[in-house]
Amino acid sequence: MHALDDIDLTVEENEFITLVGRSGCGKSTLLRIIGGLLRATRGEVRVQGARVTRPRRDVSLMFQRSALLPWRSVIDNVLLPVEILKLDRKEYRRRAEELLAVAGLEGFEDRKPRELSGGMQQRVALCRALVHEPSVLLMDEPFAALDALTREELSLELQRIWSDYRKTIVFVTHSIQEATLLADRIVVMSPRPGRIARVLDVRAPRPRSLGVTAHSDELDRVSAELHELLFARELEPLRGGQPRAASAG
Amino acid sequence: MAADAVARALEGDEAVGRRIARAGGRVILPLLAIALLVGLWWLATIAFGWKPFLVPSPKDVWNELVRQRHLLPGHVEATVVETLEGFGLAIVIAVPVAVAIAYSRVLEASIYPALVALNAIPKIAIAPLLVIWMGFGAGPKIAMVVLICFFPIVISTATGLKATPAEFVELSRSLASSPRQEFAKFRFPASLPYVFVGLKVAITLAVIGAVVGEFVGATEGLGYVIVASGQNANTSLAFAAIALLSLLSIALFYAVVLIERLMIPWAADEQRP
């Protein structure tokens, strides 16, 4: 039994797509393959034309656990990729400070991670993922370990940050709410083996929120469709891949 | 009503407890306990009428300490120097070995059993051999300290290096760190709490190692004092030397604890000596 089978997906540049599915549908595995942390046994992944064989500096990953190094201050944590990639620290320090300010953490640069709440730690992790200007951001259920309110807050924040720092994002979640709120397209996966079952377009304009807004009809429609797909007893896999969008990424 | 009173009493007790703790209860309470034991010891010597050369009373021991106050510092210094030199040398040898074990399965499989076997040999049996090989100077004592400290430091450091939290390793890999970067920025800092566990165990053993080394051939040091005073039936002096050794162990242990607090303040939440 393979973890994934027959995955054929194209993501456009600066598109925000979410991978949704029940546990065991391989969405995290797929993300790690895209990020170069795992090797696909068959098939390949290309980012901007180049094959992915191992982690790349223009593809950034963010996980469920913030993994902030407790012995470093917040700003030093954000600058970690800059150090490892041997970039100019002074140049990127300004960018790190700017990112922290955008994330609402101005003034916290010299604090230690243990002084921050879970939500604040994930914001720092997000800044760290963005500091070295990657073109692709892969996020594996980054808000799953947070309480529901913080989770919603950070989803809205991510949307806001994304509008300032546009890049391609692949976001794994098993929250229908997050998937609907954030995505341009939602890739619904079915488990055992992991397959793409459906791809839904979300046409609601941004910024989106979960309160009563003019476009909540579209979000409700998508949400309802997702519910139906995910809770159906048998989720039919999509054969022959999904129709390709005009290639750019 | 009664429940309220009990709750208030418990609260009060807690508050008192906190105040005692804040007043350096960590220091005061142990001192009180020791004072109590000394008191009981004194009563026992009076009650049982023990001869001073068998079991001296606290007063005899104190008098002897005062009498020898010019000679003892030299011996204390000798033991301290042997202990610290051996301890430092053990760290210098043990840490690279631990790194090798943590990074190489082959080395781990081959070295580990040998280390366990060597560690099982009673060090006191090796002591006379060390004197034969190294003479009567400080050499055998330092060697003894190294032998006794090596194992705990290697084990704890190797364990710490392998116990790097999975999310740090994943982060390191996602950033495509080189092995050197992964070691320096992730594994080694994350292993420090474990290293210090080994250091704290080792420092207490280190003093024992120095003393055992001195037992089998020395002209100075607290171990030598204990042996020499035994030959003169000066039991009070032996007790005094033992008391000084205990104080020395405590001081060195808490010195390591202090260094730990300074070096890894971020681990403080989970650590207690």
CATH secondary-structure class of the largest domain in chain A: Alpha Beta
* Most residues in contact: chain pair: A-B, 21 and 18 residues
Strand content of chain A: 15-25%
Unreliable spans of chain A are 242-249
Which key terms come to mind for this protein?
heterodimer; A: 249 residues; alpha/beta; 2 domains; six-stranded mixed β-sheet; 34% helix; B: 273 residues; mainly alpha; MetI-like fold; 10 helices
Structure write-up:
The complex is a heterodimer of chains A (249) and B (273). Chain A is of the alpha/beta class. Chain A folds into two domains: 1-58 and 135-249, Rossmann fold (3-Layer(aba) Sandwich), CATH 3.40.50; 64-133, no CATH class. Chain A is built from eight helices and eight strands, in the order βαβββααααβαβαββα. In chain A, α7 (176-182) crosses α8. The longest helix of chain A is centred in the middle third of the chain and has 17 residues, at 148-164. In chain A, 38% of the residues are buried. The two termini of chain B are 42 Å apart. Chain B has helices at 2-48, 58-67, 72-103, 105-120, 123-134, 139-162, 166-174, 179-215, 222-231, 235-263. Chain B has ten helices and no strands. Chain B is mainly α and 273 residues long. The radius of gyration of chain B is 24 Å and the shape is flat. The chains are: A alpha/beta (249), B mainly alpha (273). The A-B interface holds A 35, 37, 54-57, 60-61, 63, 65, 67, 69-71, 80-81, 83-85, 112, 114 and B 165, 167-168, 170-171, 173-177, 181, 185-186, 189, 264, 266-267, 269.
Summary, kept brief:
The complex is a heterodimer of chains A (249) and B (273). Chain A has helices at residues 27-34, 74-78, 80-84, 89-102, 118-130, 148-164, 176-182, 216-231; strands at 16-21, 46-47, 50-51, 59-62, 136-140, 168-173, 185-190, 195-201. Chain A is of the alpha/beta class and 249 residues long.
